[in-house]
Amino acid sequence: MMTKILLCIRPFLTTFSQTFPAAGADPTFLKSVKPNPMKLRTEKLSHFRFYWHDIISGPNPTVVNIIQPPANNKTTPTGFGMVNMIDDPLTEKPEAGSKLLGRAQGFYGQASQGEIGLLMAMNFVFSTGKYNGSTLTVLGRNPVFHKVREMPVIGGSGLFRFARGYVQASTHTLDMKTGDAVVEYNVHVLHY
Ligand SMILES: *[C@@H]1O[C@H](CO)[C@@H](O)[C@H](O)[C@H]1NC(C)=O
Ligand SMILES: *[C@@H]1O[C@H](CO)[C@@H](O)[C@H](O)[C@H]1NC(C)=O
Question: Which top-rank group of organisms is this from (predicted)?
Fold first, then answer.
């Protein structure tokens, strides 16, 4: 019985030892890969323009204050330390009722002691057309009273994998009484 089994597996043993690489060639540390396994096409540059609505007033605000600066704020008349969380609509036109393209979700904080200068960290989550479900991530400095503020696009998901680029934000309308703002965003991104 034992001999029979040995006879059966011997051919395999020999084959195995023959195909195994010679001593010294380690088969585990090097493997060839296809040149373009993700089938990436040529990188392209896209330009998007939309309007970002930061709504503080009314029954359905899209901004909530999550951190208040400490009470001892004599040296920081700019509200240094304040942080707000946002879920702001992104629309095709400046009017709030115009076509909804997605939302800007994230937060901004007052990170400047000298002027109103926000640190913004937000994801643009698109909900229409072929970009539905894809996101772009913006992280940058926003001195809100400057005419044009530029912030980097540091990445993306879905159709925006590997994205990099920048946004330029310019205030369209600002209600000084309520703080409600509509900001035009021009986004340039390189992606595949
Ligand atoms: C200091 O903080 C308080 C409470 O947050 C606020 O009401 C006040 O306006 C702030 N003062 C200045 C000068 O920013
Ligand atoms: C976007 O995708 C979601 C989830 O897949 C889907 O429910 C929704 O209908 C899509 N919207 C549009 C406008 O295609």
Answer: Eukaryota
